[in-house]
Design a protein that fits this description.
Elements (H helix, E strand, L loop, with lengths): L1 H20 L7 H22 L6 H7 L7 E3 L4 E3 L1 H14 L7 H5 L7 H15 L3 H17 L9 H14 L3 H14 L13 H20 L43 H13 L7 E8 L17 H5 L2 H11 L9 H4 L2 H7 L2 E5 L1 H4 L9 E7 L4 E6 L12 H12 L5 H12 L8 H6 L1
Parallel strand pairs: 3-4
Antiparallel strand pairs: 1-2, 3-5, 5-6
Helix pairs in contact: 1-9, 2-4, 2-7, 2-17, 2-18, 4-6, 4-10, 6-7, 6-8, 6-10, 7-8, 8-9, 8-10, 9-10, 11-13, 13-15, 17-18
Length: about 450
């Protein structure tokens, strides 16, 4: 027992010293550029979330809140306190499940999607304090590191709340001890994800609270209030240096999603869309589709969906998604409207999609890749096969800056114009030279 406690204190101190000591000058140029990319991508998910009917109550709720209007709620014309603005922006970022993600962290008990909390918190705290663009970039890099490096398999740690508190602590200039208290309090008070059930998705609300609780914990620690200090599951690592702390920046390891669905479905989507390019694959001539999937990823077939299904359930159902890719030649926001989901022919096609676990694929996941094999059998007997190891958006198969901007423009439209999208991207490219982030937030 004593040894375990001492180990937790050591790793907590190591993390806190890193948070306090890291500066913008410690970041390689490629890390700085990647931070700008993930900020743009997360802003797109926020704009997308503001248009979703299921999240409409957020705006009504905020209008009734008596909070200082110090920070921007993206895409709404509203302002709120830093904690409530971060809450709203983090909630919006989660609504349509198009966040960036970290493959290894997700598999080994860290945060699956660091950006959905880290970026709303960094923008809100930066705007509240009039921080510089360099401060924002540094805080985001820290947030991704904390979210992805704190892992635990027995009891998954609240890495997103830790990340939020780390970012807020950095902006508030807390020392190492105060930072440990802030992270510990945030983790202790962090929300649990709500279960995803048919016709219900409030997980985006809990995501918002992961952002809010970290800011509030850091503000409490600043006033000398404390609680449990952050620790770590020492069965995985007793020293964060073994996970490359200060040398390997986790923001470089995240994938950026081109499709608004669970990442486990992206290999199959890409394989189908690639096969359609050179072949006549239509709902009428498909006999059967066989998808070989990771054992770890078989949850994407757990729940059956139908014409009356909720959009979130469809985003996690591979047969539906594969059918949409075949029928529509794309997988975007349009495939998850209630009107598209209600098409019975699409579900008839989905019934032809069979997903099986392939243990042979498991040995190279998650360290190497996320492999998927798709076999399309046509009614004339022709069989088409495609394997995807690195789905589009992985660090080894990334979206280019131009493709990322195109994605942002689609996700943020019609909230903002293509011209405004390009203006935001240009402003982000020059973020290093911004003295007060409020200049940038004003554009939003």
């Amino acid at each position: 027992m004593v040894k375990e406690v001492e180990s937790a204190l050591r790793v907590g101190k190591e993390l806190a010293d890193y948070i306090v000591g890291l500066s913008y000058d410690d970041l390689p140029p490629e890390v700085v550029h990647q931070v700008k990319r993930v900020i743009l991508d997360s802003l797109g998910t926020m704009y997308l979330g503001t248009r979703k009917e299921e999240a409409a109550g957020i705006k009504t709720f905020l209008r009734g809140m008596d909070t200082p209007g110090e920070c921007t709620v993206v895409g709404t014309g509203l302002r709120a306190s830093a904690s409530w603005a971060a809450w709203a922006n983090a909630a919006y970022a989660q609504v349509h499940d198009c966040n960036d993600g970290h493959r290894e962290a997700a598999a080994y008990g860290g945060s699956s999607h660091p950006g959905r909390v880290a970026i709303p918190v960094a923008l809100a705290m930066g705007e509240r304090l009039g921080a510089s663009g360099k401060d924002i970039i540094t805080a985001v890099a820290i947030g991704y590191d904390i979210a992805a490096k704190i892992r635990g398999m027995k009891d998954r740690p609240p890495s997103s709340a830790y990340s939020s508190a780390a970012i807020a602590s950095k902006f508030l200039g807390l020392d190492a001890d105060e930072t440990r208290f802030a992270m510990g309090m945030a983790g202790y008070h962090s929300p649990k994800s709500f279960p995803q059930t048919r016709g219900l998705d409030t997980n985006f609300i809990s995501n918002g609270y992961n952002a809010k609780v970290g800011i509030e914990a850091a503000l409490l620690a600043k006033e000398g209030l404390n609680g449990p200090k952050v620790g770590d599951d020492n069965r995985l690592s007793t020293r964060f240096r073994t996970r490359g702390l200060g040398e390997r920046f986790e923001v470089m390891e995240v994938y950026i999603k081109p499709y608004p669905t669970c990442r486990m479905t992206h290999g199959a989507i890409e394989a189908i869309l690639e096969l359609k390019k050179g072949n006549e694959i239509t709902p009428d001539n498909v006999e059967e589709v066989q998808v070989s999937q990771l054992t770890h990823g078989m949850y994407i077939t757990d729940e059956k969906v139908g014409p009356d299904s909720y959009y979130k359930n469809c985003q996690f159902n591979l047969p539906y998604i594969a059918a949409a890719a075949i029928a529509d030649g794309e997988v975007s926001e349009a495939q998850f409207t209630s009107e598209r989901i209600a098409d019975t022919k699409l579900h008839e096609l989905a019934a032809k999609v069979k997903v099986t676990a392939d243990e042979g694929l498991d040995s190279i996941y998650p360290e190497e890749c996320r492999p998927t094999t798709v076999e399309v059998v046509l009614k004339d007997g022709k069989t088409l096969t495609k394997r995807v190891d690195y789905p589009w958006g992985e660090p080894r198969n990334p979206l280019t800056d131009e493709q990322l901007l195109d994605k942002f423009a689609r996700w943020s439209s019609p909230s903002i114009s293509r011209e405004k999208s390009e203006e935001i991207w240009e402003a982000l490219l020059g973020l290093d030279g911004v003295e007060d982030i409020s200049e940038f937030m004003g554009i939003l």
